Each structure stands twice: as structure tokens, then as C-alpha cells.
Amino acid sequence: MNSHFLLLATFFTCASLHPTRAADGPTEEQLVQAAQDLPKANFPKLVVFMEAKLERVHQANLKAAEPENREALQKAQDAWKKFYEADLLAAASEGGGGADNPITMQRKVYQLRLRIYQLSTPFHQGWVEIPKVEEA
Q: Per the confidence metrics, is the pTM higher than 0.85?
């Protein structure tokens, strides 16, 4: 009986952390906590969540931008993606554990949070320590 309960509890825990779930899926805070508890298992889920959040923020910016600014905004995002990929290659080679190393995964999350913050902050406001950005 206990083994069935544990199996069912494990299934529901994994299902609740799956990044492709609808809006009722895990929150960023839940994924951060899960990544702290089991880094190798949960950092990839947090990275997928943050990449999806970045894409939503970018698409909202494109939609809100004046038509004459959309191309420049897209080029800036494309340039950032090239930087992101190069930065991760450097971090993976420095860390010695490859792309799935928890230190490299932390770097991914940091860079994604930073970019979300950059896209969510009006330029004239200036930048400070990276806060969490709540989506509307």
C-alpha cells in the first residue's frame, strides 16, 4: 500500500513541475525551490520556464512597440540570443561539467532573469539589482 502511495505522490509531484503545463502549473518560486532541493533534476525545468517567460515578455514588447521600432527590437533580441549561447558555452567549458552542470544552469537562469528585467524596465528608469518581474 505504501509503495503505491509513494508512486502516486511522486507522479503528481513530477506532473506538477512539468514546464508544459497550462497556467495552473508551478510558479517560478516553486521551481526555484525545487531546483535548490534537487538541482540536476529541476534546473532544466526552471530554465525552460524562464525561457518561456522571456519569450512572452519579448512578444509583449514587440506587440506594444511602435511599428518602426519592431525590427530593431527583434534584432536586439536576436543579438542577445547569440550572446546568451556564447556565454553558456564559455560557462560550460569553465565549469567542466557541460551544459547540464548545476553551475551552468544557474548561469542560464541568471542571464534569463537579467534579460527579462532589461526588457521589462523602461530605459529612463535606470537599472538596479535584478528584481523578480511579475507578469500581467
A: no
